[in-house]
Amino acid sequence: MKKTLLATLVIAVTSMSAAAFDLDGADRYKSAAELGIMEGLVVDADKQVNKDNAFQVAPYNRWAYQNMRMFYPTSDIAPAEEAINLERAIDASVKNVMVDNGKGEMRTFDQFMTETWGDGIVVIKGEKVVYEDYRNGMTKDTPHQLMSVTKSFGGLMALMAIDAGKVDADAQITKYVPELKGATGFDGATVQQVLDMTNSMDFSEVYDDPTSGIRTYGAVLNFTEKLEGIDYPSSMYEYLQTLGKDTKHDHGEIFHYQTPKTDVVNWITNNVNGSTFQEGLESLWNNIGASGETYVLLDGNGTPVAGGGLNATPDNLAKFATMMLNDGEFNGEQVVPKAVVDTLAAGGDRDAFGNGPDASDNMPAGEWSYRGQWWVKHTEGAEAFMAIGIHGQWIYIDRDRDVAIVKVSSAPDSVTPAQELYDLNGLDAIVKHVSK
Questions:
Q1: What's the total number of domains in the chain?
Q2: Do the domain assignments include residue 312?
Q3: Where are the alpha helices (DSSP H) in 277-407?
Q4: Where is the signal peptide (predicted)?
Q5: 337: in domain
């Protein structure tokens, strides 16, 4: 089955000519500095990053993903009152890992990082960082655009609200967001269905159609141009109330990955917690001893882009991944209830996943599912749950083998089957090596 773009807020942007770069040849894997992007006091026009090309246009994203707040409004996520440093016990042998690139060719770790446009990777075993590698100007303390990895943080907060008894997962969504009565893409669906993206919603992700759902969504967020003659909703929340049901499917029948569902999950959590997405992240950041700079992109109304706006450092993401790997415990404190982590690891409805449009050769029916805004792999001996964002963003948790990996990238394509397989092969090869 054809797979839609993976795990992100995908926004159609105005393509900018990349004629100055040979992206199919010698320039394909070069860093932003090697390409001269944003280098010097006066930057040549064809090497200038701006709002039109920062989000998804290669190779400008090689620089932009470490500098997103220069182009979009943002809100800070405050660091912890007291920073906690992860212990490091570096295993240099990780650099000797060989990775199948998906074409049957074994590539070195260095080639894997280069050929997947990796900007940084952190490998955790137990409670220690055992390997890290940074490229393209990245450091462990550089915030990086995470795309739809953001969704998984919102999903986690919702699961914690359910665990705390604030939300009934089997209740209809309109119990917590009455404004959605009549919006048949949500009305009649349960909280769990929206959380797992199995509610039936009519929302097209056709990027070359300026009137499609995803283009309208982007325009409402003020991330894409508004067309003349169209009366757009004034806010994301108003837009969500206009979304109807996919008449071909009932709620709960199939998994269909669609970004506005995440906004509704966040709406529920905000209502029951009486706090914002930023405040929820700040509480989590405080509990894991996060330090330095973290921020989230805002739409034109100052609303956090919970579907794909988080920018965080590899070091803070490694602290988060360490906590999730260790059943929600970090530095002797239970940050996330173990039952919540168990729920994620158990996964969602495999039949709904397999019957939907997002199953693929890389994520086949029966072996994958989606639960609480996280992707779950059920392959025997290699079970894992993960947060994924386009252009190569990963938080990969394998509790059975006691290994977690954070990888941030600036790949030129949002996702391709070949690129996705190469990353999946690389992450599994690293887990196998470290868990020996």
A1: 1
A2: yes
A3: 277-287, 314-325, 338-346, 350-355
A4: 1-20
A5: yes
pLDDT score for 19: 59
Measured CA distances, 15 to 31, 37, 224 (Å): 20, 16, 12
The CATH number given to whatever domain includes residue 312 is: 3.40.710.10
Task: For 208, list phi and psi in degrees, rounded to 5.
Answer: -95, 5
pLDDT for the residue numbered 207: 67
178 domain-assigned: no
Q: Answer whether 286's CB lies under 8 Å from 81's CB.
A: yes
Residues in Cβ contact with 38 at an 8 Å cutoff, skipping those fewer than 6 apart: 32, 47, 48, 49, 63, 67
Q: How many CB atoms lie within 10 A of CB 70?
A: 14
Whole-structure pTM value: 0.94
User: Could you tell me which of 252, 280, 131 has the C-alpha nearest to residue 191?
Assistant: 252
Smallest Cα–Cα separation from 6: which of 436, 428, 432, 424? 424
**pLDDT mean values, one per 10 residues, the chain (436 residues):** 36 47 94 96 93 91 97 96 97 98 97 98 98 98 97 98 98 97 96 98 81 87 86 94 96 96 97 96 98 96 93 98 98 98 98 96 97 98 97 98 98 95 98 95
In a domain? residue 47: no
Boundaries of domain holding 289: 76-161+265-434
Token pair 């959380």 in the structure block, residue: 195
Look up residue 70 and give its two tokens. 């220069």
Tell me the catalytic residues: 148
**Helix 149-163, helix 338-346: angle, nearest 10:** 120
Q: How far is CA 399 from CA 230, 283, 327, 344, 436, in A?
A: 49, 24, 8, 11, 14
3-state helix, strand, coil in the chain (%, to 5): 30, 15, 50
C-alpha to C-alpha distance for 410 and 390, rounded to whole angstroms: 9
